[in-house]
Amino acid sequence: MPVLYDRRTHRLLWILSSSHGCGTRHANSCGTCENTYSPAGQYKPLISEHFGLSKLTGMNCLVDGNIPPGSGLSSSSALVCCAGLVTLTVLGMSLSKVELAEICAKSERYIGTEGGGMDQSISFLAEEGTAKLIEFSPLRATDVKLPSGAVFVIANSCVEMNKAATSHFNVRVMECRLAAKVLAKHKGLQWDKVLRLEEVQTKLGVSLEEMLLVTEDALHAEPYSREEICRCLGISLEELRTQILSPNTQDELTFKLYQRAKHVYSEAARVLQFKQVCEEAPDNAVQLLGELMNQSHRSCRDMYECSCPELDQLVDICRKFGAKGSRLTGAGWGGCTVSIVPTDVLSSFLTNVHEAYYQRNSSSLALEKHSLFATKPGGGALVFLEA
């Protein structure tokens, strides 16, 4: 259930339009500045295509922000969304929040990361005080009122993983794509056009729980070799390499299809269960939501394998000191945990987690300032103009 944490809204981009070429600069993941890659520059083909423009106005930008880079709090998506909104402002044009979210999601794929659109969607569609159920095809967002008596706490493991510089993220995307194709072929569907596991469920017209049964029946837990995938789909190795695998996954020898499909379908079911608990608001709502978060982390750790020892340790510490639920957030392999914590134990929770994880881990001390904080849902991206 996406939430735009209010700490994330404290991002400032000051801009001065100019008549000369695009000289945009930005802070990269290392905190330095460079001219070689511009988030605003990503929009040139996208905005030109959308509005039929032949020439774009150049601009000089100063970027500042307080989102820890590489922390799983969508700092890169925040920068891209900010750049998109500012670019439209400079051009004197407008798009709906939905259109802008879709363009921003597409622009992030220019660097080779096969990401989805949830981060960009919540960056624009978020509203203060409520979580959002984000759905796609078409993109839409539904308010989900969170229970009172608890807050979310963000804790940074201080382990950074640059998903654009590693293959972990894209391999998981490809494993899900291959799983979707094998499941579609197993059920007699036209598999070659299928890209997402959700498409198989939609084409079959069954529930998520039924898709978990289909996964158990159709896929095995042992990793699939490239040769076995080819046999399942009735294609050659060359066709697999050139028509399905992405450039940064072509050297992978094995793929875990069962584990990835089981995680995706069970995680989607947990999202709907989370929404249902929030709507029904039972007396033990916080406890029930916490258990769903705990199940989610176990699945991320064991089935999707996107956790790391530091995240697992931090999750355990958070649960030990009062969190009803805790899980990794973001792409994984580092970054932050998010925990649901009763408000009456918040003060002791923060003190104990600080001592147990940060004070005993010298490598975390440098990032301590941005490492642990309570938060609540905040509003989406805005442009502030000088009067």
From TrEMBL:
Tagged with keyword Membrane: no
Entry keyword annotation includes ATP-binding: yes
Family statement: Belongs to the GHMP kinase family. GalK subfamily.
PANTHER family xref list: GALACTOKINASE-RELATED, MEVALONATE KINASE/GALACTOKINASE
Keywords linked to the UniProt accession: ATP-binding, Kinase, Nucleotide-binding, Transferase, Ubl conjugation
Single GO MF descriptor: galactokinase activity
Protein name: N-acetylgalactosamine kinase isoform X10
Top-level taxon: Eukaryota
The organism's taxonomic lineage, starting at the top: Eukaryota, Metazoa, Chordata, Craniata, Vertebrata
GO biological process: galactose metabolic process
Species name: Cricetulus griseus
